[in-house]
Amino acid sequence: MIRTQSCLATTMIGAATLLAVTAGPGAKGGVVAMATVQVAPPRPAFATCKACHSVTRGGTNGVGPNLFGIFGAPAAAKPGYAYSPAMKGSKIRWERAKLDAYLADPRAVVPGTRMTVPGIPDPAKRNEIIGFLEKLK
Questions:
Q1: Which of 24, 35, 115, 122 could form a disulfide with 106 if both were Cys (CB 3.0 to 4.6 A apart)?
Q2: pLDDT tens digits, residue range 51-91?
Q3: Long-range Cβ contact pairs of 12-15 (< 8 A, separation 24 or more)
Q4: Maximum Cα–Cα distance across the chain
Q5: What does pTM read for this prediction?
Q6: Distance CA 62, CA 59 (A)
Q7: CB neighbours of 41 closer than 8 A, spacing ≥ 6?
């Protein structure tokens, strides 16, 4: 039996993600295929969030959890991040209305959250951020 291994690596390049698939020993190694997938660039309003959160598929957590794929997901569901007990117990699902309320005033929605940003008062900026997060699937 021949064993093969494969690896999928992703790299953000501006508004695109470069995917490289490599094959292991059974396929003589090396890059087998490369493709570029268009991904929406972060919206300007997301700059506040970028200081603590990454948005790359499979990316690491930072000061805050990686936000890729959180839209529609339950709160505190990203593996490997040490969520506050308040967030773990919140029973929130990150839908548009809940994200809007949370981004406006995190401590009012989840008392005891570790989110340090006091809130984003501008509804247009919150909408821009939510729209961006909604596309990260």
A1: 115
A2: 999 999 999 999 999 999 999 999 999 999 999 999 999 99
A3: 12/39, 12/56, 14/41, 15/39, 15/40, 15/41
A4: 60
A5: 0.70
A6: 9
A7: 14, 15
Tokens (6 digits) for 111: 């008392």
Residues 114, 129 contacting (CB under 8 angstroms): no
| Helix, strand and coil in the chain, % to nearest 5 | 30, 20, 50
Cβ-Cβ contacts under 8 Å for 129 (sequence gap 6 or more): 43, 45, 46, 49, 99, 103, 120
- At position 114, the amino acid (one-letter code) is R
Helix H segments across 69-122? 85-88, 96-104, 106-109
- Contact assessment for residue 33 and residue 26, using Cβ atoms and an 8 Å cutoff: no
Residue 85: strand, helix, or coil: helix
